[in-house]
Specification:
5-stranded mixed beta sheet; Helix Hairpins; rod-shaped; 3-stranded antiparallel beta sheet; alpha+beta; Four Helix Bundle (Hemerythrin (Met), subunit A); 469 residues; Heat Shock Protein 90; disordered N terminus; disordered C terminus
Length: 469
């Protein structure tokens, strides 16, 4: 299944890609080491040959100078004594000198430089006479020429070594640059699909749709992408089932709850007959808890709608009407707990999603009513400045513990403080407030948490104002 639509040049396995990248990176350096080793071996051999030649030339030069001195001395002795043994010794010295000079001559660039020596040797052979110091001087000149030739060869060998060193340095730098590019290429060949997989996982975690390119790359990563496709489909199905479950359960719960509320209202209005004080207390308890259950169901529905990213509907909204609509469902609860309500009057208007803003303020008022102290006070204030409009909801009640503050807006988190009454909270009220505020470009923050006072602030950008009389 992995071979479908595969590029012919693409390696099919991550193992193959890693192995090829290793070989591509290592092979050029292996070739460079082989070339450098051969060059060093050749130059080392040339150096040994040159050193051996220099040693032999030095010894031969010393021999020629010694023979030159012997020939000159023997010639002088023969001129004085005229003995045959001296003549034989002279001829032997001449023969040895001639042999050494013949070997020496192979190193000379110009053989004609030996002509004066050959002429002088002929004089010695035929007349057995010598010119004082002439043969020794000529021999030393020849040795100097040979030394210069060896110096030239040594200099040439040094230049060759320097050239080889420069060439190896250049090749090394060039290979390093090429290797860096190859490493970058192969790294990107592996990192790019891995980054795409990371992006897919992040999009999957946030519930967003992945808009990037296909992962591609080796088969292992392609297979992982296919697994992510399967997981994405499964999560989408689970999300649909969850939303369907929430809708059905909310409907199934609201139907009997509505009947329960209607019945308790009839009893409270004493339509079916007059109730005594104990019976009326039970009816009020039914009314109170049925309203709390309705609030929980509505919060679950709100959370479900937020997770589906419902589109916003911006409209000209009067802030006063929003506050009145948000407070209305909780008036009876506030009266029962004898909480004094203070709502300001303002002419400010805003271009925003009215439903979302009512949801935000309503959840803050619900929290204040449920967690607030009996016989306390709930204060709503409006602060209209040049940059933003702030709505503060402040109530009397137990302060929030420090360790709960960082988790206030996390869904389903319930801190140390518990709401009063038999019906427990769901822990999603403030989460709905935060998510709804972000959708309309607002922010919510805890602004007061001391002296038995807890306050939250909704900050709305002034860019959305329609008018502010």
């Amino acid at each position: 299944m992995f071979n479908q639509n595969r590029n012919p040049w693409r390696l099919s396995s991550l193992k193959q890609l890693v192995l090829l990248s290793f070989l591509v990176v290592v092979t050029p350096f292996g070739a460079l080491i082989y070339y450098a080793t051969n060059a060093l071996v050749e130059q080392s051999a040339e150096g040994r040959v040159l050193a051996q030649q220099a040693l032999e030339v030095t010894r031969r030069g010393q021999t020629l100078e010694r023979l030159a001195e012997d020939i000159t001395r023997s010639a002088r002795q023969y001129q004085v004594v005229k003995k045959d043994e001296i003549k034989q010794r002279l001829e032997q010295f001449l023969s040895e000198y001639q042999q050494q000079l013949t070997v020496h001559s192979f190193l000379l660039e110009d053989p004609q430089s030996l002509q004066p020596i050959h002429e002088l040797l002929d004089v010695f052979k035929h007349s057995h006479q010598s010119e004082t110091g002439s043969l020794l001087n000529l021999t030393r000149k020849i040795n100097q020429q040979v030394d210069q030739i060896l110096d030239k060869r040594l200099h040439a060998l040094n230049e060759t070594a320097q050239h080889t060193q420069t060439q190896l340095s250049t090749l090394t730098l060039l290979l390093l640059a090429i290797e860096a590019l190859l490493i970058l290429f192969f790294s990107l060949s592996i990192i790019r699909p891995v980054n795409r997989i990371t992006s897919r996982i992040q999009a999957l975690g946030t519930g967003e749709e992945y808009q990037g390119d296909k992962v591609g790359g080796p088969d292992e990563l392609v297979h992982l992408e296919q697994q992510l496709d399967w997981l994405t489909e499964r999560l989408a199905e689970v999300e649909k089932e969850k939303q369907r479950f929430l809708r059905h359960m909310s409907h199934e719960l609201k139907t009997p709850l509505t009947t329960l509320r209607e019945g308790s209202d009839l009893l409270a209005d004493q339509i079916t007959g007059k109730l005594n004080s104990n019976q009326m207390e039970v009816v009020q308890l039914l009314q109170n808890n049925s309203r709390q259950l309705q609030t929980l169901i509505e919060q679950l529905l709100d959370y479900s709608r937020l997770s589906q990213n419902e589109p916003l509907t911006h409209q000209d909204t009067a802030i006063t009407s929003v506050l009145q609509e948000a407070v209305e469902p909780f008036k009876l609860l506030l009266e029962q707990k004898q909480i004094k309500l203070s709502v300001p009057s303002t002419n400010a208007r805003l271009l925003t999603d009215r439903t979302m803003l009512v949801r935000i303020v309503g959840n803050l008022i619900s929290n204040a009513a449920l967690y607030g102290s009996d016989n306390g006070q709930l204060t709503i204030t409006i602060d209209d400045n040049n940059e933003q409009l702030c709505i503060d909801v402040i109530n009397d009640g137990p302060v929030i513990p420090e360790h709960d503050i960082p988790h206030l807006f996390e869904p389903f988190y319930q801190g140390q403080n518990r709401r009063k009454g038999p019906v427990k909270g769901s822990g999603i009220g403030l989460s709905i407030v935060k998510d709804s505020a972000e959708l309309i470009g607002a922010s919510v923050a805890l602004i007061q948490n001391a002296s038995n006072r807890v306050g939250f602030r909704i900050s709305l950008s002034r860019e959305g104002f329609i008018q502010n009389d």
